[in-house]
Task: structure prediction
Amino acid sequence: MEQKKDIRSLTKEDLREFFLSEGMEAYRGNQVYEWLWRKSVHSFDDMTNLSKELRQKLSDNFAINHIEVDLMQRSVDGTIKNAVRLHDGLVVESVLIPTAKRSTACVSSQVGCSLDCKFCATARLKRMRNLNPDEIYDQVVALDKESRIYYGRPLSNIVFMGMGEPLMNYKNVVSAIGKITSDEGLGISPKRITVSTSGVPKMIRNLADEGLKVKLAVSLHSAIDSIRTKIMPFNAKLNLSDLRESLQYWYSKTRSRITYEYVVWKGINDKESDIQALVDYCKFAPAKVNLIQYNPIDDGSFVQAGSEVVQNYVRTLENNRIIVTVRQSRGQDIDAACGQLANKSNLC
Ligand code: SF4
Result:
């Protein structure tokens, strides 16, 4: 059976043209666009200002390939994890992280991942496919609804830190951000969105040129090439010096502080030389370092360093006027903590 085209792959102009070509008024296209994005309906029957015939015409010609939240789990600390089924049956996960004042959505951008970080079980899944802009958008809508229901407030922040490397699905991630920030979509300020990458220099430059006003976070984990290549093998090609050049470019274009995500592992990056390398690496522009608590994956070769080492990192970074936060895990009991999504250890 021929598959119907996903109506959300059409622009507003495409929709207007569709109606014109059917001998109808173009403004119907605006109405449908509003239902699809701002009102986020998943059925043509819900488009109540369209006639029955018109809704039938749409459903004869198009599909709305929406996600389904298959399973929602709530942690004792309030974190919510959604297992999200895509229209082709594949599953990704997204997480709502509530704090006293904020509700942060952590969304996935790929099924599996294109990269091969050794501390990450997603890397073993390999990339199955990129998510479409509407699949990213739908994750945000679902988490926004849950935030309103359980915490009485809309989402305050969005991080692209779930499954996958967002900059390896560049076009769709940028398109999703466009929809999320547009007044015709969710109207969320780009300043509240963080794109978290493992460091793809060419794409960081492109993102800087895009002028989106989003924030950038980089999963660094080591500022020494030989160590970073061991734990993130793609670093052999996309090395730290290329990465820093792209970050310098990012800062020169956006004047936006760069966040570095960093886990301290026993025997891997717990020496004074590792700390000094980090300071030297990130002090060229305003920076913030998030020291993230590690949730081990099954083989046990990566073990969180002790708190005295982490405190040493904190002291040295602060002495060098670099902002540093120590991130505790959230949602560990439902495998929603950083590093636990889909039994994986994504820290990008
Ligand atoms: S840490 Fe991120 S970039 Fe690395 S393999 Fe895992 S999901 Fe991909």
